[in-house]
Structures are given as C-alpha cells and as structure tokens.
Specification:
With 464 residues, the chain is an alpha/beta fold. It has helices at residues 13-18, 35-44, 50-66, 71-76, 114-128, 141-150, 181-184, 203-206, 243-247, 259-269, 286-300, 327-331, 336-345, 352-362, 393-400, 429-436, 455-463, and strands at 7-11, 30-34, 78-79, 92-96, 133-137, 155-156, 174-177, 188-193, 196-202, 216-219, 225-231, 235-240, 275-279, 306-311, 365-369, 381-386, 408-413, 443-447. Strands 3-4-2-1-5-6 form a 6-stranded mixed beta sheet. The protein has a 6-stranded mixed beta sheet with strand order 7-10-11-12-9-8. Strands 15-14-16-17-13-18 form a 6-stranded parallel beta sheet, sandwiched between helices.
Length: 464
C-alpha cells in the first residue's frame, strides 16, 4: 500500500486490558507499545483481581509476537503475523523506549505520570515520524482530552470489538408495528401446531427494518402479539401469542404488569429457550420475574433440579475470603437483591421466614461466586446471572460455556449502572451477548420498558 496511507497506533494500557490481543486488530497498520505500558501491565499481572488475567494474556501475546527478535528490530518493529482470529493482521509491533525521550519543545506534559509518559511518546512519534499518521488509542476519556490539549492531532477510542456505536441502537427484543398488523398484510398462510397458530407472510408488509429469531412483535391494536419463528429473504413466520394470552402468563403467583413483562415471562417459561437476556432500568422487574419463573419450574413443574444464582462482585469483593462463613454465606451481601425478591414473593405467607427457608431447601437454591465458575459443567439447572452489565464479553463467555444439557441461563442487568472502570454501555459483555445471540434460535432478549417497583422509583428513573 502507499506509505502515506499507513497509520501508527500507540496503545494505552487499558486497551490491552480490555482486549489482550488488541495488537492484532489494526490490519496493515503498525502498532507501538510504550515501555510505560509494559511496566503497568507488570504491576497489574500479580494482583488478585480478574483484570490480572487479562494483563497476563496481553503480556504473553506480546512475547509470542516478539519471539527472539534482537533489540534493534524490536524498536524498529517486528512483523505481526496473521492469526486464525485475526487473518488480516499485516503490520508491525514495536516497543518504544519512552523513558529515553528528551523533548526539545515545551508541549510535553510532566513526565512523572504514566499517562503523561504515554502521551509524550505519541507526541514524539508525531514529530519524528512525519511519513505516517500517529494515532493514540485509549479507552480513558480524560487521557484523550489531555492528549488533544497537548497537541496530539489524532486520538481514538478502541472500538474494534464494539457491535453497536450507540446504546440507543441496541436490540430491544421487540418491534412496534405501526397501525394494525392485519390491515397491512395481504397474503398470509396460517397453520396450527398444538395450541398456537403460525402465520407466514411477506417480510416487507411488516414495515420492520431489522428482524431476528424470537423477536417479539406488537402493533397498535392492543390485541396482537407475535414472535418471529422463521426468516428468509422474502418471508417471515410469526407465532401468534396474542396479547391476552401473553398477559395471562403467571409464575409463582406473579403475573405481568405490562406487555414487556409478559414477553419476558413467556421467554422465561419457554422450555425451548436456553438463554434469556433481560435488560432494563432499575425497578422494571428483571430479578423478580426471573426468580419467580425459576421457582415455578423447579418446585412445581420439576423441569430443573436446582436454582443457581451468581453475580459479578465489585472490586473490593473479588477476593471474598475476608468475610466469614461458607462461600454461600460470603456471597449473601452481594445477593441481597435475590433474597429481597424471595421475601417479596412470600410476604403474605403466615410465616414468611419459615416459607423462605422451606423454598430455599425445596428449590435447592445455591449462591455461587462468578470467580469460581471456570471449569465447571452445570447440568439440569436454572441459572440466574444477575448484574451482568459489569462483566466483560470474555467473562460472560466463560459462564455461558459452563452451561450443560438441560440448563437454562438468564442474564439480567441495567446498562445504566456499570461500576467497572474498564467498561462502558457499548463495551459491556451484556451488550455483546444481546447482539451476538439475537440470531440464535435458542435465545430470547427483552428490554423491560417501564419501572413498576413504585411510583417513587418510576419518577426517579425518569427525572434524575
């Protein structure tokens, strides 16, 4: 390619922590990793945190690429060979000795801070490598602002793993059809299978741009509700659920309060759906519906053997050993949302505390830490993964691949409540699986639109 078209990407530490194999993601362009980044990775790799694993993977990836290259070639650039996961990688990787840089101009930032050292490296390369466009890549918003203020012409976020540019474009799991469906449709072929009727009709007649498996469809008639069960280039097959039937679903004494909860409960109770993804604001009923469906199918229907509840713990709790008791007792402070929900489900019982203990034993409810899920094989279980907006794509993959035969997984979370320093709404693992699994016939996704916890919670969600 023409040399002037090539770019030189300078990577920040958080890029390699977010995507350890990021060095292979820049196609034919060259990659530079400042020495300060290696020092930060070295400090992080020995911490007893989940991010330490990513740091070690990034270090091993750098070692695999560098191999036995001599120091001179390492500074000049070692060729990045194509990989199975990155077949278009064709640039070079260089380690930049930023501690040796001496600035002759006053634009350099004070060098006693790691971020400043990395920015200074990019500024130096911008001055000395006029043959290429130098780009600093970092997920730190403040660092991007500092770099631009210091005179760096090109600063970018790392976006190669982002499936949506804006969270507003994330699949909601349902589509609203303008007007009445049957007023828009001409030819339709209908057939009955069991209790349900299936309609096959022209895809363009729906007026919906994006259709995918198990997507729910509602119109303005207040009576129709369907679910996409088959797709091709010209036609779509819809399972006619009916709004009244949808609102008639119930589990463990809980009935849906709106059509979105009806969609969620239908997916939770459907034995053909292995993965249910529930997103939505706080108070929309994600945990309540999931736990009610779990108890109904474990205790009443005996479809599963147990309920397994897990969630990502905040940084202070990544090592849960500082709390007394067993693993389940250690997890209780972070699973209070689940125990609160159990109390709500049995608050009208004559003896709520006795009912709670009875159900815990009867449904075989187990609380597990996400940190100890790797290597397990979970069979015939209803698994609830709560608060998974704080998990990365690789962490959620680790959990999903643990699910064995006869197991149903429910992932729930609120993308407006991300606590991780390394994630945003568009890079969260929850966003990732919503997009990746929307065409999988064994999964369903529902955005629970509307807060039903209380009028106080609803007002706060809308106005704060």
């Amino acid at each position: 390619m023409v040399q002037a078209e090539k770019k030189l990407f300078v990577l920040d530490t958080n890029v390699l922590l977010h995507e350890p194999l990021a060095i292979y993601s820049f196609k034919e362009h060259d990659v530079v990793v400042p020495m300060t980044v290696l020092e930060e990775l070295d400090q992080i790799k020995d911490r007893k945190k989940d991010v330490s694993r990513d740091a070690r993977i990034a270090i091993r990836a750098l070692e695999d690429c560098v191999g036995g290259a001599p120091p001179e070639q390492l500074v000049a650039g070692v060729p990045l060979l194509p990989r199975e996961s990155h077949p278009d990688s064709a640039g070079t990787l260089a380690i930049f000795p930023d501690h040796q840089v001496q600035f002759d101009t006053p634009i350099a930032l004070p060098g006693d801070h790691n971020d400043n050292q990395i920015i200074n490296s990019a500024l130096y390369l911008q001055q000395t490598r006029t043959d290429v466009e130098v780009v600093l890549v970092t997920k730190d918003i403040n660092m991007r602002l500092k770099a631009k203020g210091a005179g760096l012409r090109k600063v970018e976020d790392y976006r190669s793993d982002q499936l949506v540019e804006d969270i507003r474009f994330l699949a909601t799991g349902f589509a609203q059809i303008e007007g009445k469906l049957w007023d828009r449709v001409g030819d339709v072929h209908s057939h009955q299978a069991g209790r349900f009727v299936y309609h096959t009709l022209d895809r363009e007649a729906l007026g919906v741009d994006s259709l995918y498996q198990n997507q729910y469809l509602v119109d303005d008639s207040e009576t129709f509700c369907g679910q996409v069960k088959g797709l091709d280039e010209h036609s779509v097959t819809i399972k006619d659920l009916g709004r009244d039937r949808l609102m008639g679903y119930h589990a463990w004494g809980i009935s849906p309060k709106n059509v979105y909860q009806g969609m969620a409960l239908q997916a939770l109770m459907d034995p053909d759906v292995d993965l249910v993804i529930l997103t939505g604001p706080a108070g929309s009923g994600k945990t309540l519906l999931a736990l009610a469906a779990a108890l109904e199918q474990v205790v009443e229907q005996r479809r599963y053997d147990r309920v397994l509840v897990t969630r990502n713990t905040p940084e202070i709790a990544e090592s849960i050993g500082f709390l007394p008791g067993t693993e389940e007792e250690k997890m209780m402070p972070w699973l209070a949302a689940v125990t609160d929900t159990l109390e709500v489900l049995h608050k009208h019982d004559e003896s709520p505390s006795s009912s709670l203990q009875y159900i815990m034993d009867k449904a075989n409810i187990q609380f597990k830490s996400v940190n100890f899920m790797r290597g397990r094989s979970i069979q015939n279980s209803f698994v609830l993964l709560d608060e998974c907006q704080n998990l990365t794509a690789s962490q959620i993959k680790t959990i999903i691949t643990r699910m064995g035969e006869g197991t149903k997984l429910v992932c729930s979370g609120n993308l407006a409540q991300i606590d991780s320093n390394y994630l945003s709404a568009v890079t969260s693992g929850l966003t990732y699986i919503v997009e990746r699994f929307k065409d999988f016939e064994g999964s369903a996704n529902v955005y629970l639109n509307g807060v039903v916890r209380s009028r106080l919670a609803s007002f706060a969600e809308e106005n704060l």
